[in-house]
């Protein structure tokens, strides 16, 4: 409930209701000036190494190297599931 001066009990002010997202726009502009966030991936020669072990895991190494264990391939059955794991490693 608001008091007579328009102030909420919690300390919220009615004038605070109007939000200004100019800081969001400025942040986006700075991000675009720097270039894409994935520019560090340009030119990498991606390699996927499959290790024949029952481990349900995958990991990445510098320079575009991805290691996937066959246990992961046996655990996830669909291409979409495996693609999600590899995409995460990228």
UniProtKB/TrEMBL annotation:
The keyword S-adenosyl-L-methionine does not apply. Residues 1-40 are annotated as: Disordered. Residues 1-16 have a biased composition (Basic and acidic residues). Residues 38-90 form the Peptidase M48 domain. Keywords: Hydrolase, Metal-binding, Metalloprotease, Protease, Zinc. PANTHER family: METALLOENDOPEPTIDASE OMA1, METALLOENDOPEPTIDASE OMA1, MITOCHONDRIAL. This is Peptidase M48 domain-containing protein.
């Amino acid at each position: 409930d608001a008091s007579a001066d328009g102030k909420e009990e919690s300390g919220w002010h009615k004038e605070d209701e109007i939000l200004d997202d100019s800081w969001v726009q400025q942040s986006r502009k700075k991000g675009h000036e720097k270039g894409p966030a994935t520019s560090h991936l340009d030119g990498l020669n991606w390699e996927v190494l499959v290790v024949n072990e029952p481990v349900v895991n995958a990991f990445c190494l510098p320079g575009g190297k991805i290691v996937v264990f066959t246990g992961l391939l046996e655990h996830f059955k669909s291409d979409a599931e495996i693609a999600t794991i590899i995409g995460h490693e990228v």
